[in-house]
Amino acid sequence: MTAQQTKLQELPLDLKRELLPKHVAVIMDGNGRWAKRQGLPRVMGHKAGVDALKDLLRCCQDWGVQALTAYAFSTENWKRPQDEVEFLMTLFQRVLRQELREMVEENVQIKFVGNLQALPTVLQEEISRSMEETRNNRGIEFTVAKNYGGRQEILQACRAIADQVKQGLLQPDEIDEAVFERHLYTAGSCDPDLLIRTSGEMRLSNFLLWQSAYAEIYITETFWPDFDRSEFHRALYAYQQRERRFGKV
Ligand code: IPE
Ligand code: IPE
Ligand code: MG
């Protein structure tokens, strides 16, 4: 390993360890435009995007970020051309299979959020296997949002809670934030502190609507496949300059 590579593994000197976000969430956007810019088919952007995500996960481990959530496929992304959707499903399945061994060894705890039952069966099997095999890992918590929609997540929580009320197991006035959170896909995980979106778009696109209530938002013009350690460094630096007030003065 070169001196430069070793340096990249260490937390940059201008970042304060005690002020690192515990949980970083990323809306990985701009794969298609990245590919188009180089005269490549859109799907090549998704392929390049996988490498950017792998490196961000490793960077979070190196620098001490405890949880990373990545938006990989939204409930609205089914509206894309069928061949792109199929490519994304196959790519996801292949990467998961290829990377599982390493994630087990590196103590990564992998989780998935979204309507997983609607995914292809082979992919569901791969997802179950990876969660099962990393269940006892206590390193970074890596969550992939696949067929995820914030509104759908809130709706399914409402249905589950309504069902409990109907059965007499819960009173309406017992429904508080803690009860509600237990019915979200993210039950048991902390909310994101920093939410990054690449490609310059300034919207949430149905991502972690409940959980992002107090997330600090960072938007970069960079397309996702070009989001590297120096970009992440900039995002963390910007985050550390923010004053998080949570409604207080
Ligand atoms: C993000 O990149 C990846 C997914 C939504 C799966 P896009 O595919 O949205 O890329 P652009 O926004 O069209 O450039
Ligand atoms: C959001 O990106 C979804 C993911 C990154 C998986 P989109 O490209 O789908 O979002 P919109 O359509 O620009 O809002
Ligand atoms: Mg996009």
Automatic annotation (TrEMBL):
GO biological process: polyprenol biosynthetic process
Protein name: Isoprenyl transferase
Family assignment from sequence similarity: Belongs to the UPP synthase family.
One protein family per Pfam: Prenyltransf
Binding residue positions for Mg(2+): 29, 216
Transmembrane segments annotated in the record for this chain: none
Active-site residues annotated for this sequence: 29, 77 (proton acceptor)
Record note on cofactor: Binds 2 magnesium ions per subunit.
Keywords, alphabetical: Magnesium, Metal-binding, Transferase
Function field: Catalyzes the condensation of isopentenyl diphosphate (IPP) with allylic pyrophosphates generating different type of terpenoids.
HAMAP family: ISPT (MF_01139)
EC main group: transferase
Record text on subunit structure and interactions: Homodimer.
SUPFAM superfamilies: Undecaprenyl diphosphate synthase (SSF64005)
NCBIfam families: PRK14830.1, PRK14831.1, uppS
Alphabetized GO MF terms: ditrans,polycis-polyprenyl diphosphate synthase [(2E,6E)-farnesyl diphosphate specific] activity; magnesium ion binding
Organism placement in taxonomy: Bacteria, Bacillati, Cyanobacteriota, Cyanophyceae, Nostocales
InterPro entries: UPP_synth-like, UPP_synth-like_CS, UPP_synth-like_sf
Residues reported in the UniProt entry to bind substrate: 30-34, 42, 46, 74-76, 78, 80, 197, 203-205
Gene3D superfamilies in UniProt: Decaprenyl diphosphate synthase-like (3.40.1180.10)
Enzyme Commission code(s) on record: 2.5.1.-
Cofactor: Mg(2+)
